[in-house]
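seq/struct pair 1
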Amino acid sequence: MGAAEASAAAAQVADATLAEAAEYALRGLGSRQRPERGWVSLTQSEQRVAHLAAEGLSNAQIAERLFISVHTVKVHLARAYTKLEVSGRAQLAAIATAHPPQLDRHGNDLVCLRRVR
């Protein structure tokens, strides 16, 4: 979006009623495209954290590797446990190893590369 488009959008929202502003804010929200359960339900971040946990890394090591907080690692793991209907790292590891990460021809994790680019 260019500067002119941004200014026009801002002016349009500034003149809107509260109901119109709420409708504008919610217009991009739709039904979830991902299933609610199973490996395919995990976000890319949840998958990456699951793979690193399956490799035996601690929460602190995962956080350091991905440049995120330990709290964020815990949140991703908790969501992964719920979506995969598991109760711990051993069960998570069994599922994660059955779904290897996507690697490029140099062995780089494509999920991490997409995030950086």
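seq/struct pair 2
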Amino acid sequence: MPGGRAGELAGVPPAGDATSEGVLTTTTSMSAPRAPHTATALPDGRILVAGGFSDEEGAARGAEIYEPGTERFSPLPPMKTLCHSHTATLPPGGKVLIAGGYGQGRGPRTTAWLYRP
């Protein structure tokens, strides 16, 4: 790899380098594999992870919360419809607006949901 070693990100010092500002470490796994999903920081410090594909079969139906203090994911009740490639925005007031994207085997969606922590 020109200008670096295999496994390094361009412009990012290796872990343990005195000039690095942070180190990536592994935490617990999500309750379901998912991509392209959203991850939204909530005002209380937790992270809402929503939607995405769970496998080749289709989109994930649910969401989960990551608790930084315990480094664990907790599943939330299932969403009424499948979604991926959506947006998740935290407007003033602390609720998360999850909007648009795609559903399993369908074109773009007009659906929107509000998550209330």
